[in-house]
Amino acid sequence: MPHQQMDLIPRVSDEEKVSAEAQIIEKQKETDFDIREYPIEIIVHKFTEKLEDSDKAELFIPDYQRELVWSPEQQSRFIESIFLNLPIPYLYVADVTAGENEGRIEIIDGSQRIRTLVRFLKSDLELEKLKILKLLNGFTFNDLPLSRQLRFKRKTMRMIELMEVDEDSRRQLFDRLNSGGTKLYDMEQRLGSKDGEFTNFIKNLASNEAFRSLCPISEVRVSHRDYEEMTLRFFAYLDGYQSFTKRVDEFLDDYLEDKNLNGFDANDMFFEFERMLRFVEKYFKYGFKKNQNNSSVPRIRFESISVGVALALRENENLSPKSMHWINSDEYKNLIRSDASNSRPKVINRIHFVRDSLFGRAIQYAE
């Protein structure tokens, strides 16, 4: 009898149901969006216009996504899907409502697809390993008949544009769309799985107040241990930027593991890091920032400046640059723009540009 009475008591009360439903409705209202449809040619234009001279294209990839790159085979299969009129997932983007990117559209999910379209339309992608349209293997966009080129550029893709979504929410949505919300970022994984003296050394340097003042980043990036990652990148590139051939994540993993296993000179590395920061504070008007209003320094900008400065100081520890105008030059902007890759030549070129510009000499570009 007591059990029968208990069964009559609902597990969730009517009041709780009403409250839960009200919360669902409230949160749904917070995610306002429009569905848009654009031809491929327009999407590529929105991503590339003004990229060369100001890195201010309307569509942009946030810093935390820039190293996620499809293989040529994956890119080719995506292009094949478009030719075959197969369903293409929606692009997710967000209207940025504050900060230096206000008014621009941040790509939340779809950066790989857009970058693939850009490469293909520029004929930088040669199709390979196609399973259905096998006769297109080896083709670039320019190899297609003009009629097919025009039809391809007119094909449309749908885009969900979110309104009034802050940076933290955009990052969370990226996590959910790409990994069910459970993804650990690379640096979080490293710190959790690669214990050792060098890992602790990186953690300590990453908390340096001068470093954080000169190189502000968003709270979201702080929570994903970007300061630790940038510190690791500084040393890894400083020691091996000319010789690395692997993917960046593998390169960083190997460097961290090697230092933990084989040891390192903590005093020398600490001195070099501190010396670099003092130089940046003295000669770079806004530190690592692009300008006074910049609220979050991209990794690619930090890497080029920090490693370039450290290399210059290895040559001349008393270096006093005659001019810093190069920091705002179109040449430098192009080297660190949002679609810049982490291929070995690109890494070398942006680091050497900073190093050699500090001396006022000709830039030693990678061959």
Automatic annotation (TrEMBL):
Record-annotated GmrSD restriction endonucleases N-terminal domain positions: 55-190
Record-linked InterPro entries: GmrSD_N (IPR004919)
Pfam families: GmrSD_N (PF03235)
The protein's name: Uncharacterized protein DUF262
Provenance organism: Azomonas agilis
Taxonomic placement: Bacteria, Pseudomonadati, Pseudomonadota, Gammaproteobacteria, Pseudomonadales
